[in-house]
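WARN retry 2 of 3 for item q-0093 after timeout on previous attempt; input resubmitted unchanged.
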Amino acid sequence: MLKDNKVWIAQNEAGENIYLLPKMANRHGLIAGATGTGKTITLKVLAESFSDMGVPVFLADVKGDLAGMVNPGVDTEDMQKRIAKFGLAEAGFNYHDYPVTFWDIYGEKGIQLRTTITEMGPVLLSRILGCNDLQSNLLNVAFKIADDEELLLVDTKDLKALLNYMGENAKDFRVDYGNISTASIGAIVRSIVALESEGGDKFFGEPALNILDFFTLGTNGRGMISVLDSETLINNSKLYSTFLLWLMSELFETLPEVGDLERPKMVFFFDEAHLLFKDASKTLMEKIEQVVKLIRSKGVGIYFVTQNPRDIPDGVLAQLGNKVQHGLHAYTPTDRKAVKAAADSFRENPAFSTMDAIQALGTGEAVVSMLDEKGIPTMVEKVKILPPQSQMGSIDDTKRNQCILGSIFYTKYANSHDPDSAYEFLQRRGIEAEENKLKAQQAALEAKAKAKEEAEAAKAKAKEEAAAARAKEAEARKKKRAAKSVGSSVAGTVGREVGKTVGSTFGSFGKTLGGNVGASLGRGLLSTLFKD
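OK item q-0093 returned
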């Protein structure tokens, strides 16, 4: 709770209050401890205090027991004892509810939360799909092609359409983008189908989340507590952790630089934080470290919640200034190493052994170290955590639905819509290409038919012309033969008549000459006259 404009989180063994300073809240923090030691209570106390301060909060509800923040706490005998022990009544402690917005990637226990494939990017998408290095590189190529060809990637069907397009045109893309393996494309598409079968495709679509909606205030100026229902989502650990990492990245890329503020602009709690780093690639680890290191200058504080500090890589753990360590057990040599590592992450207090203290902590107890006014970690102290002011545990569906339907964001995100994106564009391109192909085939068939028709016409014409020429030639020969025949007949007649005349003149010798020789001379003469 708030006291003197500071986050009162616990009391030490001497009865002194332990505070988290608001201007140091963006230096990040760690809440660690074994199951059942009180991590959730600590998270709630911090989240309530930030909300009371007017700072929006985002947290993931893995077990469903954070939803109770929407209701005031319930007074019990145990609570009365704790209130009296801490002197909370005199400090103004009271039960009250908090402004809560429920979100859900699957749209079942909260307002539908979506983003687009483009906004997720190839690095985080590769992690969700479980891609190897070769497939991750191919996804990078896919996003580059989408940018170059101005293809909008909104949902999973857009991504599948793009990948299939790349496979079908691999030869054309090789020169500009390198070799495109159809086997790798097939593997990525299968991973997308597997994600869709788990309902993960619901996360990708429009309207996409506007990250600034997390910065709204509730009644009385309290910061809105955005609760992501993760009871189902946690079963897909890669989607869960990658989504939260994407959310942190969006905050980092969207918010302006503000430096150190009197209080943070937003506080982000990452429950089951070990999932973020599990099987993370080198590229992803570098991205996580960069975001954690630089996002504090954007006014955002990140608090990792996990069982053991060893779950957090050293490069990230070094950035966490405010630490709350609940109990850990050391049943094996490996456990002892884990406890020692946890103890070594604190500034030593000569009054006690931190390692022994961690193993002896009861529920609701912790060892803590907060940043002081100068940003220096205080010595570790053994403390008891304050109780929350809101309800412990889950809520019924009726109350949850009332909150969901009453949210100002419900109508904004309730109904999805499918914009004109890569899938539709490539589908049209395919239809146009098929139509053009059919048109080309039809034009080729028509040209072939026309050429055949023209060839047949030319052949018929040539045949007709040849027939006409033969007829003409036959006619000429016929006329020639007729003329020759007439000439022969006339020549014979003329010769005979000449012979007769000569015969009359020369007696019997002239007759003989006129009948034979005369006819022959006449035919020869006329033949010469009628010769071509």
